Amino acid sequence: MNTYTAVIKQEDDWWIGWIEEVPGVNCQEATRDELLETLRITLAEALEFNRKDARPAR
Questions:
Q1: CA distances from 47 to 9, 23, 31, 42 (A)
Q2: Does residue 26 belong to any structural domain of this protein?
Q3: pLDDT tens, 11-55?
Q4: pTM metric for this prediction
């Protein structure tokens, strides 16, 4: 199991965040809890996409 770093901030009425180690994983939600869940989902999707993309290169 890997560990990833989520950076989260509140800007006005929105929570924004991204995963430091994986470019392109960034989200925006109305609540902190929604943001964390969306980051988890987006990170999982990005990792799966990267795995599928890397497999043919073996």
A1: 23, 11, 24, 9
A2: yes
A3: 999 999 999 999 999 999 999 999 999 999 999 999 999 888 777
A4: 0.85
Contact predicate 4/23, CB 8 Å:
no
Q: Quick one: tokens of 13?
A: 């009425």
Question: Is residue 34 domain-resident?
Answer: yes
Domain count, the chain: 1
Task: Of 28, 27, 24, give the one whose Cα is nearest residue 53.
Answer: 24
Place of tokens 């994986």: 22
What is the b/e burial string over 20-43, where b = at least 16 CB atoms within 10 angstroms of the residue's CB?
Answer: eeeeebebebeeeeebbebbeebb
